[in-house]
Amino acid sequence: MRLAHTWLPADTPDNEFNIQIISAHDSLLVTNNQQKIYDAVSSWWCKPLGHGHELIKNSIYEQLDNFEHHIPANAWNAVIEDLSTKLVNIFTQMDKTLYASDGSSAIEMAMKLSYESRVLQNQPKRSKFIALSGAYHGETIFTLGVCGIDSYKKNFAGLLTDNIFIENIPYVTGRNDVLWHDCNFDENYWDNYFGEVSDLVTALIFEPIVQGAAGMKIISKDFLAKLVIVARRHDIHIIADEIMVGLGRLGVLSVCKDIIGFEPDAVCFAKNLTAGSIPMSTVVVNKSISNIYRLHKKAFHHSHTHSCNTLAAKVANNYLDYLYKSDILDNVLLAEKKLSEMVINLQAKFSFILNVRAIGSIAAMELDYNTVDVNTIFKLAVKNGIYLRNIGNILYIMPPIYNLLDEISKIAVYLDNVLSKLKITY
Amino acid sequence: MRLAHTWLPADTPDNEFNIQIISAHDSLLVTNNQQKIYDAVSSWWCKPLGHGHELIKNSIYEQLDNFEHHIPANAWNAVIEDLSTKLVNIFTQMDKTLYASDGSSAIEMAMKLSYESRVLQNQPKRSKFIALSGAYHGETIFTLGVCGIDSYKKNFAGLLTDNIFIENIPYVTGRNDVLWHDCNFDENYWDNYFGEVSDLVTALIFEPIVQGAAGMKIISKDFLAKLVIVARRHDIHIIADEIMVGLGRLGVLSVCKDIIGFEPDAVCFAKNLTAGSIPMSTVVVNKSISNIYRLHKKAFHHSHTHSCNTLAAKVANNYLDYLYKSDILDNVLLAEKKLSEMVINLQAKFSFILNVRAIGSIAAMELDYNTVDVNTIFKLAVKNGIYLRNIGNILYIMPPIYNLLDEISKIAVYLDNVLSKLKITY
After folding, report:
1. Considering only residues 111 to 130 of chain B, which have any Cβ-Cβ distance to chain A shorter than 8 Å?
2. Closest by Cα among B256, B42, B239 to B132
């Protein structure tokens, strides 16, 4: 229905194609018609434990008994320092943790930290960032400046900073793809590339392995691993945007460390951090950045009101404990194989599926624009009991991971159902 | 103490001047030494109901029984539409409400909406904003571009968009100041001013009445009221940043509407919106903006994961109901007189207080840099049981408002105590 006063995100002011949610539990959204809809995108990729998980409720209940939030300037509490310690301890070389409330702001902070550390070292000209074509790092204007997807930024071109984009990324279908292990990386080319721009560049920023908004594109691990090594040779910081993939989505805590095999200068987490309950984001930085601020006795200014929100921190603490103590991460790795088989089977059945890919708890199918009307997917999916949000001609799933292994066969039925009913235009 | 892994906001990596909070209730923070500290800044200006208020707890308990958050893309619930309706109904001419999680992002959205509406009308050159010297609208790079305080932005100068700043703002001491009612506004001057730049400008942005980060400077109501009229004559949007002042701080819901007497094209609320419990911010827009998107059937893209977070929306709904049903807003207006008297009395007693000002539940004293060591204020205040955060030589208070009328005499004693012990250097 047309909402009188809420302008829903990524939408026109009065779009009537929407569903009214009256409750939600586990992987299900319940509508005002009592229809149960499978939340196959984890509510914008943020709910690894689904809806209404006891861990979330109990964390918030417990913290509410004490306090919800206090000013974090010159003040702290054990909950936030515990969380910082857990985040730093995911890595071996990280130093300090800073907080904000959304992914864009965490990326802004990481980019500002990288750049200001150059300014403190009398290198103010190192103001550019190198980003990847297909990248998405948020929708504030500064983060749109490192967005590699034209549709998000074209109307704001007049406001964006001037950055450098890497084209021709070697994408893969998964970990078994030959390019995953060896992408024919031209080290001389990249050495020259970074060498030529390093005087003007402060950092290389990318989404480790999966570019979400680009359509769940999977980048060759070999490419990123080698790119990092060469960039570092030219004293270029590495900013890793693990907002979508970090803390569980790919079956590991940090995709940089646990899959690619390096530790960045700054890494951002958000969505999974609080299991999609209360807004919170974070930047974990290496001493390569914090030591510059120490040396210059410089405060870093980015003063979010709710930086360190304690309700959020409490949930995050308990979520991280759960990742360590349960077998949930191992199950994501087991699920990857089943998810991959699922989309391969669907491709075999439906000729309009041009290709498929899967990694961790993410699977995607590229549909043929010429034969399938992608605009009907959302309505058709909802009608068939599943919330699916295509990105152009990419149909993807990214379900809650807490029970994934058991649910894949259920998801396969949903997808088969929707794909069977898709309007074919050939 | 030096925190191993948390880098506190607006601070150096390892600052040891901090307090450990173990609980908080009402207006009090409780430290690990069981010391009770009066939260005289409402935890960065966001806690009108103090800590642990039943309204906050009960709202969250109630919503947790149902669900905490779901994807807001093509999906909504009654809680968020209720909140949007309440926010729109503060005004008479507003249309739609959009959501984010922090103040900076709400401002970014308002600025992007204003600019993209120009792009949609084939006026892409109208990319500049007019802001006020002393302005603070957040610390993302785009919002720093409209910051009128040099210390926040000087290290990021190379990244900022080029905007226009109004200097020589007529500041006042409060509503009784003669300039409050009549600032000798030179209409011809401002008409020429806006006329000359209007081809390049999309919006005028300001903090209605109080510039917080500048040191609680109070702007002449007459100046802002007349500036808006002249700017509009040149088709310049008005963006009002009510993040600090709106929803209670000055004893009214909207400072634009209820004090200055106009309705902006976009107004941002945040801090008070959820009574400082869960991060949430909002932009309420006029049809002057939304109708452009309707006309062009254009979606607005700024897709925060937690846009419309339902836990936050539930608290906001109940907080707004409380503002309507209780006498809390009237009490702020009554408190204003007492707060003003309090700082006038302190000025009479301490010769190093150069001048004072007060409005709503905000009072500020300008201290003499030459005679007072402002760097000792935080430590001294904490020692004396009050959390005070000076802005340079401005000492201000902005306490929780729910019990303000009763607490002013208590606050006066705290302040007298701290000021009496301030290190005088003459």
Report:
1. 111-112, 115-116, 119-120, 124-125, 127
2. B239
Which residue of chain B has the CA closest to A5? B96
From the candidate CATH numbers 3.90.70.10, 2.60.40.1080, 3.40.640.10, 3.90.226.10, the one assigned to the domain spanning A67-325: 3.40.640.10
What single-letter DSSP state applies at residue A131?
E
CB distance B422 to B373 below 8 Å: yes
Is the CB of residue A329 less than 8 Å away from at least one CB of chain B?
Answer: no
Render pLDDT for B99-137 as a digit per residue (tens, 0 to 9): 999 999 999 999 999 999 999 999 999 999 999 999 999
- Cα B361 to Cα B364: distance, rounded to the nearest angstrom: 10
Bridge-based pairing of strands B281-286 and B266-269 is antiparallel
Burial A348-368 (b: 16+ CB within 10 A, else e): eebebbeebbbbbbbbbbbbb
A130 sits in which H/E element: strand A128-132
Q: Taking CB atoms and an 8 Å limit, are A44 and B13 in contact across chains?
A: no
By the CB < 8 Å criterion, does A406 face chain B? no
Q: In chain A, what are the helix, strand and coil shares in percent, each to the nearest 5?
A: 40, 20, 40
Task: Say if B389 is an interface residue toward chain A (CB within 8 Å).
Answer: yes
Residues 132-191 of A with CB under 8 A from B: 139-142, 152, 155-156, 158-159, 161
- Residue A410 in contact with residue A377, Cβ under 8 Å? no
Helix axes A310-325, A78-88, angle to 10 degrees: 40
Do A52 and B67 count as a contact with CB atoms less than 8 A apart?
yes
Question: CB of A64 within 8 Å of any CB in chain B?
Answer: yes
Any idea which residue has 């709106």 for tokens?
Answer: B246
Superfamily of domain A21-53+327-421: Aspartate Aminotransferase, domain 1 (3.90.1150.10)
Q: What is the pLDDT of residue A166?
A: 98
* Tokens read off for B333: 């207006």
Rounded CA-CA distance B267/B276 in Å is 19
Tokens of B326: 């209780």
Q: In angstroms, rounded to a whole number, what is the distance separating the alpha carbons of residues B115 and B202?
A: 6
Q: How far apart are CA A198 and CA B131, in angstroms?
A: 35
**What token pair was written down for B153?**
């932005």
Q: Where are the domains of chain A?
A: 21-53+327-421, 67-325
CB contact B308 to A (< 8 Å)? yes
Number of Cα atoms under 13 Å in the Cβ half of residue B107: 30
Measured between beta carbons, the chain B residues lying within 8 angstroms of A115 are 156, 158-159
Task: Give the DSSP H/E element, type plus range, for residue A355.
Answer: strand A353-359
Residue B293 touches partner A, C-beta closer than 8 Å: yes
The rounded distance, in Å, linking the Cα atoms of A385 and A380 is 9
Per-residue pLDDT in tens (0 to 9) along chain B, 426 residues:
899 999 999 999 999 999 999 999 999 999 999 999 999 999 999 999 999 999 999 999 999 999 999 999 999 999 999 999 999 999 999 999 999 999 999 999 999 999 999 999 999 999 999 999 999 999 999 999 999 999 999 999 999 999 999 999 999 999 999 999 999 999 999 999 999 999 999 999 999 999 999 999 999 999 999 999 999 999 999 999 999 999 999 999 999 999 999 999 999 999 999 999 999 999 999 999 999 999 999 999 998 999 999 999 999 999 999 999 999 999 999 999 999 999 999 999 999 999 999 999 999 999 999 999 999 999 999 999 999 999 999 999 999 999 999 999 999 999 999 999 998 876
Q: Is B366 on the interface with A (CB under 8 A)?
A: no
Q: Are A55 and A275 in contact (CB under 8 A)?
A: yes
Buried b (16+ CB within 10 A) or exposed e, A176-215: ebebbeebebeeeebeebbeeebeebbbbbbbbbbbbbbb
